[in-house]
Amino acid sequence: MTHRILVRSILIDVPSSDYDRTQAFWATALDARSRRGTEHPEYHVLDDAAARDRVLVQDVGTDSARFHIDIETDDVEAELTRLRACGAVEVERHEFRHPWPVGRRHAKKRTDYYVVLRDPAGLPFCVVPAESDDFPERSREVD
């Protein structure tokens, strides 16, 4: 099924023990202002980072440090089908704290969740409903 995709965010996942030091490092490294997330305090958004896409630092508790991306799409289920076919494995689904349509204005249908997957090497990434302002212009059509 034809739908659209776009990398929305790059996330720097950091254990709680290293969180403050690491988010301060990346704010400096990317010449950004670090701002704690209001809805999700486990994140710091790096505003005006020297980056093409949005960059966030995420507290992952006792999990290991890594980077991951969020892929936004106007059809989450179609994108999950496409990614599973090329080797991704679904790990878990998460419901949003706020119901549709808060922030998910480009999705084709009601989507109150996002999905965590792993690529063939085991790296995590997320598929999320489309919400970026520039999604219509920057996204790519895929089958």
TrEMBL record:
CDD domains: VOC. InterPro entries: Glyas_Bleomycin-R_OHBP_Dase, Glyoxalase_6. Gene3D superfamilies: 2,3-Dihydroxybiphenyl 1,2-Dioxygenase, domain 1. It comes from the Bacteria. Pfam families: Glyoxalase_6 (PF18029). Residues 10-128 form the Glyoxalase-like domain. This is Glyoxalase-like domain-containing protein.
